[in-house]
Every structure is written in C-alpha cells, then in structure tokens.
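Hey team,

Filing this mostly as a record. A colleague (T.K.) asked me to run one chain through the structure pipeline before their review meeting, and I want the input and output archived in the tracker in case anyone asks later how it was produced. No errors, nothing strange. Just documentation.

Input sequence:
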Amino acid sequence: MWSQLRRLSVLAILALTSFACSPSGSATTGTPVEGADADAQAPATSAPAASPQGELPAEFDPCAVQTQADAEALFGEPVGAGVSSVVGPFQVCTYEPVDASGGTLSFMVWPGTTASAFETTVAETEEQMGAEALEVPGVGERAYYLTGALHVFHDGYYLQYVLLKMMSDEEAVAAFSELANQAIGRLP
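Output structure:
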C-alpha cells in the first residue's frame, strides 16, 4: 500500500506539474534527494521549453531503456518491475524496492528535443528555482544536475532522473550519471 501511494504521489506530481506550464512551456516536477524527511521536500525540475519535435517509436518502452537491473544496482536490493506511463509529453518508468523499504526512481524521456530547447529549459529552471545548475561532464552531449535531478541531452533526447531516496547530491550525481550512460547506449 505504501509503495503504491508513493508511486501515485510521484506520478501525480509529474502529471499536475506537466500541465502547470510557464508562458514558455516549461513544466516543473520534483522529488527529494537529501534531507531528514524525504516526503516533505520537493525540489523542482523542468520539462523541455519546446514541445517535442519527434515521435517515439511505437515500441518504445522507457523501462527497456532504464532497466530493472539498473534500478536494483542503484538501490542495492531487488526492485519491482518498472511501471511505464505517459505523463504529458514524456514517457516515464518508475521503480521501487520490493520490500517497500523506501525510495522511488523515475526516469523520464522526451524525444525530438533540440540542444537549444534543452539549454533554455535548464536556464529557466535555474531562474525559477534560484539555483545554479552544476555541469556534469562525461554524461551524454550535455548534462546538468539541478534541484535534485539530473538533466541530460543526447542525440535529440532529453533524459531526466528524479529519485525519492536519502542520498547526498554527490551520491545522486554519481548514481544518475551511471544510469544515464547506461540508458544512452539503449536509446532507439
């Protein structure tokens, strides 16, 4: 029951915020990475400023791009099968530990994104959050860590990672970077 409520709350946040767009079209989503009460924090991140210009292949499954084995390595324990969903303009895959010990990994994909739209979105998120994006080298063509999420641009895809799990920003950057590099190798 608790894991279902967490999954629903993450998806509800994503769904609600994907429709609460700024004039430029960016939406915010959020989840904690560090702190005493993970459920009480909600750092925000943004969807691309421009609408996706491409279409995902009909057989596209975000859970095949970021796998259950990847999530198990992140959590260090067995996770349930990924739950795929479509929230607004993006595909989402969500994983949770099977023992309901806590934590949720959401992997989001927007196809057909341009480098310009990606950079605009990161800049708008910085402004909205009053925070500075940390450039993350060695991940995709461009990557930034901002407000508890990793934003990655690679070959027309905008990948975003959000995690409900107690970990420091440094641990999150390292974990997300590894996940992103694995996912990039599996993109259609």
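Quick notes for T.K.: The beta strands are 28-30, 44-46, 83-87, 90-95, 104-111, 134-135, 142-146, 149-154, 157-164. The CA atoms of residues 3 and 101 lie 9 Å apart.
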